Amino acid sequence: MPLPRLLPSLATFLLATLTACGGEGGSSSAGPGADSLALRAAAAFDAPASMRYLKTALAFGTRVPGSAGHKATGDWIVAEMKARGAEVSEQTWNHTSAAGTVLPMRNIVARWNPTATRRVLYVTHWDTRPRADAESVPEADRATPIVGANDGTSGVALFLAIADALKAKPTSVGVDLVFVDGEDYGEFQPKEVDVFIGSTYFANHLPAPGYKPEFAVVWDMIGDRSLQIFQEQYSLDVAPEVVARVWSTAEDLGYANAFIQKPKYPIRDDHVALQAVGIKAIDVIDIDYPYHHTLDDTEDKVSVESMQVVGTVAMALIRNLEGK
Questions:
Q1: Lowest-confidence segment of 24-28, 98-102, 111-115, 226-230 by average pLDDT
Q2: Which of 152, 101, 195, 181 is nearest to 293 (CA)?
Q3: Exposed, middle or buried: residue 118 (CB in 10 Å: 0-12, 13-18, 19+)?
Q4: Strands 215-220 and 18-19
């Protein structure tokens, strides 16, 4: 979806609603206080490790459903989640695209404390887009699959480092990390076709009867070197209390410059399918990423600082539930 590359005012004029698969973030200029530093330490997220995972994932190649890179990366994610103590299951099915292509789909569901009633659901998409349709020239480049360092891989790297933290210090609450497939395969505009495939399937095949996490967060395009994450409007409409929880946690950690306490765009993303089945889900996404759906969405566009910010917030949300 090339629209976010336009100036925000023009983008807002052209479309009331953005669709996405989608900074260097940080604290205030005065620096974090002692309380913020203590909270960051308690969250214990290893951003350098997440960057190593990002590099490993990129080495498998592009992850278009049905490709060799897609299968190899999926196998790697499953093995890594099991090694970190998760109960891992896979949802596999074939999706026939609007063009008649049969796509092998694979959601990976990693669960900690699966019987716990208090649960957190985190979702990220792990597929990459089959074409760089936001490339301006030449035309041939638009048919080339993107590597998706930020769009697809930053979320995978985030989840692997979260799993590290859960292994190092087990949690008393239930945590579900779900890698959904097929978010970015098809077309978003003017009509959604062959997108959000995995999240829609997961929403219709939840892990257990009566499954109801306390809150759910979709993490998408969260490694941008110029990280600025605004509040997403559909999230505010359906789950304002979850938005408040996430952004207030970021503020407590000293990351108010990265998590901006105001809305900017309504963005259709994987959270919409979860909302449709009654899950209080929100989208954490930096949609204003200049390399979105281009061949320049590469490793050098992701920063360890941004991964540290987002990973610390994600872990703090989990740790804040413990003992409550």
A1: 24-28
A2: 152
A3: middle
A4: unpaired
